[in-house]
Design goal:
It is built from no helices and 37 strands. Helices cover about 0% and strands about 45% of the residues. A hairpin with a 4-residue loop joins strand 33 and strand 34. It is mainly β and about 500 residues long. The strands form ten sheets. Strands 10, 12, 13, 15, 18 and 20 form a six-stranded antiparallel β-sheet that branches.
Length: about 500
């Protein structure tokens, strides 16, 4: 029986006899089924990147490769890995080779992976940022931040919502742009894909306190994966986690505040280390990054926030903030993605001392109130709680001019914001200790006997107020975090920050 699926020689016979029983001489036919010559080589495909950059002391994990052949199919198990042995204790360039042959002896084209093990300097990072406050809003740029080359995917500058539905922010926390990690794409954006973005070097050698704040948006599936804020004071050799978050936090921008006291007197680099979970619905975003300090390198600024309650046409609303040269320093809108009558809180940023024009706009020309909904806006100095601009009833634009001022209280090295002074120069002095506060009592030494205080959190919400007695305030009821305290006496005001641990 001729089986053309199996290479072989087959003999077919032919026989016959007549009616008298005389048999014919048998006749045969030879059928040769020949094997097709396999001359096609298999193909090797690397798993992971073809170039990997590591630092001395890192761990190298071999990711391997796959191989397929037109006749033999998947022959990945036959791949021979050779070349250099990667030693991450020695700085060098290592080349790892991958080879395989099929059953017919056809050899695949060799594939290589380059592993760069880089030497790193010790003693902290160099260059970068030495003047504070520092802020970054990622307004269509990464600024001084850089993408890591030792991860899987990158952070993306974006505006007006991410491509994936049901996840990511619809607008920036401040300005127009933000950065985020796109989790869509099974095998590319998830699962367990890492995205790292590195800050510039921060020089805190002259500072007595330092606080890093940022806005984050973490909305989507409960299987979001994780995001960590990490710090290194040895030029990236080791990283310590300062803050982390996981899970679905809702469709809102949240604020994180991290004390950098452990890195005072030296330099530090920060990074956001994002690892996606098991789903595409996990676009975590970062915006409105700030590093504020006090000490030799610090300078004054005021944290400003904008709250907008929309009318029935959010798509008509926008705003601008201009400095005294007319340059736009912040802007937002329009807000077509916002629900009618909803409220949006926006961190404008830490504005330097000076005068500004805040301009609220309505493209239709009927303002925000009151024919088509009761819309309004309020711009506040969250450091002091002072209202800088507000309104809602206008036509096309509503412009308010305001100024932010500051003075340094002699002998104490502390910043005071929006200080009112009399001609007799009766500014009172104040000093907070300990700071950070590890127990329940915040001690305050002042030059006045009658002092009232107001304590607000970094969202500008009032959390405690009263009259200073016995030179201390019981802050047991406050959660751990960064707070603003406003001390007032004889029409003079001092504003300071403190940390409750």
């Amino acid at each position: 029986t001729v089986n053309t699926n199996v290479a072989a020689t087959y003999v077919v016979t032919y026989n016959v006899s007549d009616v008298a029983g005389n048999a014919a001489t048998q006749v045969t036919r030879t059928v040769n089924v020949n094997a097709i010559a396999d001359t096609t080589a298999p193909v090797i495909t690397l798993t992971g990147a073809s170039t990997i950059n590591l630092n001395v002391g890192d761990t190298y994990t071999e990711q391997g490769a796959t191989a397929t052949d037109n006749v033999d199919g998947d022959i990945s198990a036959n791949i021979a890995i050779g070349g250099d042995t990667v030693n991450t204790n020695v700085a060098a360039t290592y080349v790892v080779t991958y080879n395989v042959s099929d059953a017919a002896g056809n050899a695949a084209t060799q594939v290589t992976r380059t592993v760069n093990v880089n030497a790193v300097a010790t003693g902290g990072c160099t260059g970068g940022i030495a003047a504070f406050p520092y802020s970054e809003g990622f307004e269509n740029t990464l600024g001084a931040w850089t993408q890591s080359t030792a991860d899987d995917i990158d952070w993306t500058v974006d505006a007006n919502g991410t491509p994936s539905s049901g996840t990511g922010p619809s607008s920036a926390a401040q300005g127009t742009y933000y950065i985020y990690v796109e989790a869509s794409g099974n095998g590319t954006g998830y699962p367990n894909k890492q995205a790292i973005i590195n800050s510039p070097c921060f020089d805190l050698s002259a500072e007595t306190s330092a606080t890093f704040t940022f806005k984050y948006h973490q909305y989507g599936s409960t299987d979001m994966g994780t995001i960590n804020l990490e710090a290194s004071n040895d030029n990236g050799v080791t990283w310590a986690s300062l803050w982390n978050s996981s899970g679905n936090k809702g469709n809102a921008w949240l604020t994180a505040s991290v004390d950098l006291a452990a890195y005072l007197g030296g330099t530090v680099q920060l990074r956001f280390n994002r690892i996606t979970g098991g789903t595409w619905q996990a676009d975590i975003a970062i915006d409105d990054v700030n590093l504020t300090t006090s000490g030799g390198g610090g300078s004054s600024c005021s944290n400003v926030n904008l709250s907008i309650s929309f009318d029935n046409y959010p798509s008509e609303t926008s705003w601008e903030l201009k400095d005294n040269t007319g340059a736009i320093v912040a802007s937002g809108g329009t807000y077509g993605s916002q629900a009618n009558g909803s409220t949006l809180n926006i961190s404008v940023g830490c504005l330097p001392n000076g005068c500004f024009d805040f301009i609220m706009k309505d493209s239709y020309g009927d303002g925000m109130c009151c024919s088509y909904g009761n819309g309004s806006y309020t711009l506040t100095n969250s450091d002091t709680g002072a209202t800088l601009a507000s309104g809602g009833s206008f036509t096309s634009t509503d412009t308010t001019n305001f100024c932010l001022t500051a003075a340094v209280v002699a002998g104490f090295g502390a910043n005071t914001s929006n200080v009112a002074t009399s001609e007799s120069d009766n500014i009172f002095r104040a000093q907070l200790y300990p700071n950070p506060v590890k127990g329940d009592l915040l001690n305050i030494r002042t030059t006045s006997e009658n002092v009232n205080y107001i304590i607000t959190n970094m969202m500008g919400q009032l959390v405690l107020k009263g009259n200073l007695k016995n030179n201390s305030i019981n802050i047991n009821a406050l959660q751990s975090g960064l707070y603003i305290i406003e001390l007032s006496s004889n029409k003079n005001i001092i504003t300071k920050k403190f940390i409750k641990e």
